[in-house]
Write a structure and sequence with these properties.
The protein has 216 residues and is of the alpha/beta class. The protein has one domain: Aldolase class I (TIM Barrel), CATH 3.20.20.70. The protein is built from 10 helices and 9 strands. The strands form 3 sheets. Strands 3-2-1-9 form a 4-stranded parallel sheet. Strand 4, helix 5 and strand 5 form a beta-alpha-beta unit. The mean pLDDT is 95. The protein binds 3-phosphoglyceric acid. InterPro entries: Aldlse_KDPG_KHG (IPR000887), Aldolase_TIM (IPR013785), KDPG/KHG_AS_1 (IPR031337), KDPG/KHG_AS_2 (IPR031338). Its EC number is 4.1.2.14. One of its GO terms (molecular function) is 2-dehydro-3-deoxy-phosphogluconate aldolase activity. It catalyses: 2-dehydro-3-deoxy-6-phospho-D-gluconate = D-glyceraldehyde 3-phosphate + pyruvate. Homotrimer.
Length: 216
């Protein structure tokens, strides 16, 4: 197995530029899904902790698809973060931040990329020493204009906007200087996973990666 422990949050985001936000209900789907995304040029995989299959899926991808950089999304608590690290995830992404989550992140070996949607939340993340952040829910919380506004007071912050990102708007986000990647579920439709349409998922990944070239 390729050893990649110790990736920083910035390294995770820079391996984007598009990160699929994945819900896996059957752990048998994990490895072929990861392989389909890799075949389409996507390496960073966010498996959300929204199903009982999530942690096992992370473990399987970590051991069977060594080129993937698999981590978790929807990490809501310190316990979630510890479970992700134990399962072999390279990173943890949360929709928001809490004092408990930030305190646990200081003790864990994998980076936490917490979500923020306001200047005050962003400043709490900075106080915890975190400068790579998810902007969530991106479209609903002000979209591209909000990120442009954040750049003047907070030029040290790099974002991964997620929430409402689509094939139609993702390039606009990627063109911003404080955006390293975008996250979205459009890359991994639930019906295509359920029906094991792996080549269709590879095509969605290829389309997104090709469209992103030159935008950032
Ligand atoms: C997330 O789960 O992090 C986002 O809600 C994904 O948003 P999307 O489904 O709008 O891409």
């Amino acid at each position: 197995m390729t050893e990649k422990k110790g990736l920083s949050a910035l390294e995770v985001l820079k391996n984007g530029p598009v990160i699929p936000v994945i819900v896996i209900r059957n752990p048998d789907h994990a490895v072929p899904l990861a392989q389909a995304l890799l075949a389409g040029g996507i390496r960073v995989l966010e498996i959300t902790l929204r199903s009982d299959a999530a942690l096992e899926s992370i473990s399987r991808i970590r051991s069977e698809v060594p080129d993937a950089l698999v981590g978790a999304g929807t990490v809501l608590s310190g316990q979630d973060l510890q479970a992700v690290a134990k399962a072999g995830g390279y990173f943890a992404i949360s929709p928001g931040l809490t004092p408990n989550l930030l305190a646990t992140a200081r003790q864990e070996s994998i980076p936490l990329i917490p979500g923020v949607a306001s200047a005050s939340e962003l400043m709490l993340a900075l106080e915890a020493g975190l400068t790579e952040l998810k902007f969530f829910p991106a479209q609903a919380a002000g979209g591209v204009e909000m990120l442009k506004s954040f750049n003047s007071p907070f030029p040290q912050v790099t974002f991964c906007p997620t929430g409402g990102i689509t094939l139609q708007n993702y390039k606009e986000y990627l063109s911003l200087k404080n955006v390293a990647c975008v996250g979205g579920s459009w890359l991994v439709p639930a019906d295509k996973i359920e029906q094991r349409e792996w080549s269709a998922i590879t095509r969605l990944a290829q389309e997104a990666v090709a469209g992103a070239a030159g935008t950032f």
